[in-house]
Design brief:
42% of the residues lie in helices and 16% in strands. It is of the alpha/beta class. The strands form three sheets. The protein has a six-stranded parallel sheet. A three-stranded parallel sheet has the order 3-2-4, sandwiched between helices. Helix 7 links the parallel strand 5 and strand 6. Helix 6 crosses helix 7 and helix 6 crosses helix 10.
Length: 285
Amino acid sequence: MSAKIIDGKQVSTEVRERVADQVAEFIASGGHQPVLATVLVGDDPASHVYVANKIKACEAVGIGSVHHELPAETSQDDLLTLVRALGDDDGVDGILVQLPPPDHIDPDAVIAAIDPAKDVDGLTATSAGLLVGGRPGLVSCTPAGVIELLDHAGTELEGAEAVIVGRSNLVGKPLISLLLARNATVTAAHSRTRDLPAVCRRADVLIAAVGVPELLGAEHVKPGATVIDVGINRTDDGLKGDVDFEAVSEIAGAITPVPGGVGPMTIAMLMVNTLAAAKSRSKQS
């Protein structure tokens, strides 16, 4: 293995420590304790684990948390009423509704009901518009975590050719804007891309966010490239990324593992966003 391993656990720990210091400074200077409200509908085990980890992260950095756990049969109208009430609650700075909800609830309607000032997941149309327009706002946590990892690895983004495989609203599209803001040349590849290996081999920075286990192999990677694997796929052989780690690590200059790469960064950046939302609301008040 020749590639440098980009350790997401280490970087996320550093981010959380930084947030803890900043929360303490904010409160000491007269600010209020930031508060994150989490909402979980149903009894999906993985979602329960994710939310529990977010609440633990809040406790660790000094952010308050309130949790609303609703039964799976909760109606969409009742959920939207709760989300709007949290938006009106001055004691709440950030709102996170764990997605996906049960099938009878439209996730787009839930996202649209979130107060953009409290959109710590960075999913509302307002957040997306601010990002595309290059204006300050709350950025989707996973893409923000990817940029944090690239900076930690010392990857030069200005002038670099970056290829993102995947164009989702959650990861791919926000990353386009974030990388353009850093003066990278960005290509978004997807299922209709012709000759995907050739497109990927141009990349100084290759980001896989498509949700297909080990889709990208050695033939997709330029020697020395930085490879960020956002994919987390459950297979019979355990968790796998979108990148064939063993093959690609022989060619890449730096690479994130799965697990332990991008995954830990998502919650760390959620803490960053919650503090940012609290500071912004404090200034507005």
